Amino acid sequence: MPKITFLGAGSTVFARNVLGDCMCSEALADSEMALYDIDGGRLKQSAAILEAVNREQGGKAKISAYLGVEQRKEALRGADFVVNAVQIGGYDPCTITDFEIPKKYGLRQTIGDTLGIGGIMRALRTIPVMADFARDMEDVCPGAWLLNYTNPMAMLTGYMLRYTGVKTIGLCHSVQICSEHLLKALGMEALLPGRRELIAGINHMGWLLEIRDSKGNDLYPEIRKRAAEKNLEKHSDMVRFDYIAKFGYYCTESSEHNAEYNPLYIKSKYPELIERFQIPLDEYPRRCVWQIADWEREYAGLTERSAIAHTRSTEYASHIMEALYTGSVYQIGGNVLNTGGLIENLPAEACVEVPCLVNGAGIHPCRVGRLPVQLAAMNMTNINVQLLTIEAAETGKREHIYHAAMLDPHTAAELSTDDIVRMVDDLIEAHGDWLPQYR
Questions:
Q1: Which of 71, 186, 248, 393 is the most buried (most CB within 10 A)?
Q2: d(CA 12, CA 45)
C-alpha cells in the first residue's frame, strides 16, 4: 500500500478533499496517511475529520498524526507521495502585514499570494521551509513525488525544481475549471460535453489558447462576441473578460487575482477603475476571516457525526497518485520547468503551466510551442518577478528583493523606486523572525 504524507494538514478542508478523494480510489483507499502540521489544535481537528471520512469509506486507510518539526522526518519516512499545503506565517500576523504596510505607501492589493509585494513576501517566508522539506525528503523518501499546492505556485515549484533533487509537480485547480466557468458565464453550457481545449502559460495566468466544441468548431468567435456584451453590465469576472477584448484570450485564474498581476486595473490615478471592473480590494484578508469563522462552525457540526460522506472532487492529486501507482494514464495541467522549450517564447528557467500526461513512468510535460506574442509578454512581466524572488531566496541578497518589487508590474506602476525600497525594508523589519536571513 502507498504512503501519503500531507504537509500542512491543519488546512483541514483541503486535507479532507485531497485525502478523502484518495479514500474514494480503489487503488489508494488502503493507503497509510501521515498528517503533519505545527499547529496541534488544527492537526487534531484534521485527524478527527479524516477518521470520520475514513469510517464512511470502509475504514481501509491508516491515519497517523505528526506534530512539530521534530516529528517531520517520521511523517515523511518511506512516503511515496507528499502533498504540500502549508501557509507560513498564517493570516495573523503575516498576511495582515503583507497588506497593511503596502497600504501605508498607497499600494492596494486584492489577494497578494501569487505576485506583487504580497506574493514576494510569501515566497521568501516559504522557500526556506520548503528547502527543509526537501532535505528531509532526500534523506527519508528520496523517490517520493511532491505535489505542491502552496502559493506562490510558480516561485515555490520553480525553486524546488531548480535547487533540490525532489521530484515536484505544481498543481492548481484553476486549470480544470477554466473553460467550464467561462462557458457557463456566457450561457454556452450546452457546449460543455465533449469540448476540446488547450491551456498553457504560467500559474494563475495560463491562457485558454483553443476551445472547440465536440464537432471541432472554434468557439472563440462566439465567446468574444458574448464576452464583450457581458462586460457592458456589472459582474464578478470583468477583468478576465477585458483580457478577451484587449488581448484576445481568456485566462485561468479569477479576475480578483488578475487585477493585481499587471499595471492596468488598480491605479490610484484612476480610482474609478475599481468600480468599473468590480475589483475587490483587500479580498484575501476578508476571505481569511470568513474561512476561519466558517471552519469553526463547520467543525462544530461535523464533530456531532461519527462518519462523514465524501464524493471524489475534481482536484488532480488523487488522480495523479493513482496513475503513478497503478500505471493508468491521466492528463493534467501541471506546473513544471520550461525545459526544452515547452513554451518556446518563455525562458528555460521559468516555471510554466502546460498539459502533462501521467502514468507509471512519471509525469510527462507536453510541448506547446509559441504563445501569441502579447500573451508571452504578459507572462514575462510576472516571470521576471518570480525569477528575481527565487534568486533572492537562494542567495539571501536583499537587493534582489528590491529588484523583484521594482519590476513587479502593479508595484512599479504605483510607487517610486525609493518608496519601493523603503516599503521592502519596512516589510522585512515587520516580519522579523519570519525573514531572519535578510535582517
A1: 393
A2: 7
- The contacts of residue 340 (CB under 8 Å, 6+ apart) are 348, 367
Nearest to 345 by CA among 202, 236, 183: 202
DSSP state of 369: B
Which pLDDT score is estimated for 305?
65
Nearest to 27 by CA among 437, 417, 324: 324
CB distance 386 to 158 below 8 Å: yes
What is the spatial distance between Cα 145 and Cα 142, in angstroms, rounded to a whole number? 9
Opening angle at CA 193, ends 205 and 188, nearest 5: 70
What are the residue numbers of the active site? 173
Those residues with Cβ within 8 angstroms of residue 23's Cβ, 6 or more apart along the chain or in another chain: 29, 53, 54, 57, 60, 61, 310
pLDDT at position 303 is 62
Per-residue exposure over 84-96, b if at least 16 CB sit within 10 Å of its own CB, e if not: bbbbbbeeeebbe
Choose among 2, 93, 124: nearest CA to 385.
124
Q: How far apart are CA 36 and CA 6, in angstroms?
A: 6
Question: What string of DSSP letters covers 262-290?
Answer: SSSS--TT-THHHHHTT--TTHHHHHHHH
**Secondary structure class of 99 (helix, strand, coil):** helix
Which domains are assigned to the chain? 3-90+110-170 (3.40.50.720), 91-109+173-281+315-439 (3.90.1820.10)
* C-alpha cell of residue 27: 487503488
Query: What pLDDT, on the 0 to 100 scale, is given for residue 304?
Result: 61
pLDDT < 70 regions, the chain: 303-305
Three-state DSSP class for residue 71: helix
Contact indicator for 246, 374 with CB cutoff of 8 Å: no
Q: Is 42 in contact with 297 (CB distance < 8 Å)?
A: no
Determine the Cα angle at 389 with ends 386 and 392, to 5°.
155
Tell me which residue has cell 468557439: 219
Phi/psi at 361 (5° precision): -90, -10
Q: Which amino acid is at 434?
A: W
Count of CB atoms situated within 10 Å of the CB of 123: 31
What is the C-alpha to C-alpha distance for residues 202 and 379, in angstroms, rounded to an integer?
7
